[in-house]
Amino acid sequence: MYSKLKIFTGNANRKLALEVSKYAGVPLGDANVFKFSNDNTFVKINENVRGADTFIIQPTCFPVNDNLMELLIMIDALKRASAEKINCVIPYFGYARSDKKDQPRVPITAKLVADLLSAAGASRIICMDLHSEQIQGFFNIPVDHLSSISLFARYFKTNLELKDIVVVSPDTGGTARAREMSKNLNCDLAIGDKRRLGNDSKSEVLNLIGDVKDKTAILFDDIVDTAGSLTKMAKKLMEEGARKVYAACAHGILSGNALKNIAESPIEKLFITDSIPLTGDNKSSSKIIQISIAELLAIAIKKIHLEESVSILFR
Fold first, then answer.
1. Which of 111, 194, 215, 236 is catalytic?
2. pLDDT tens digits along 219-277
3. Catalytic site includes residue 232
4. Which fold has domain 5-147+294-313?
5. Where does the chain show beta strands of DSSP type E?
């Protein structure tokens, strides 16, 4: 049934790829992916992929450009090795926040990356929790957009005392995402109003729409980067009378002063998926808990290979 299914990975998140292959019951494909001393990336597929349905697991996380180039070169290598299909599993899609022209003379880099992947020879994209759903329309190939909402909801129901809770979107742009989570948890919704200041990831909280007094708030967003916006909103929630504040974000970039910001904030725990690997001091933070997406990706890969519907995985 799975004789033509092959799973490969670059260096972006090899641990996740190994877990996915384990859940899928398919050994990780043999490939060399490394850099020469001159900084050029080299890829060699060490097994026969002629006529195969191949999947490359490669989030385009830090170092973003290196991981993106690895992905593009792996696509080309598989195409030239006569793979029948080349499916790119990109749990975290780098440059996703550059999805519109919101200033004069700026690029729409997410569209450029979509074009690069298509031009390289990708047959399909499987991604998770895109910053905005419009990015799916940047591709001229099929896109399966998975969601971490059910994973988080299941974890919260099992591990948290869900009494008098409210799901909070840090900004109006994440309202639909937070509303879906509140439906899963059968609880109220609140929405933050923030203003972005320039291009340096700084923002200020202007207002809060909804009642959080004496409730346990779950801040829910797609990405936590420097954690500046998230921690400011957490402080605002405490000022508005929230009893406790948790945070959940699909993608834990955790750059800059993120660890310090989280440690000094009123956030009890920050829940993230393993779409991006934890590195350095981020591994040792007692406030950060990772939830695995490996089984979800494995199910998606098997369903796509068997040409079955994956709509049940979208929410």
1. 194
2. 999 999 999 989 999 999 999 999 999 999 999 999 999 999 999 999 999 999 999 99
3. no
4. Rossmann fold (3.40.50)
5. 5-9, 31-35, 41-45, 53-57, 85-90, 124-128, 143-146, 165-169, 188-197, 202-209, 216-224, 244-252, 267-273, 288-291
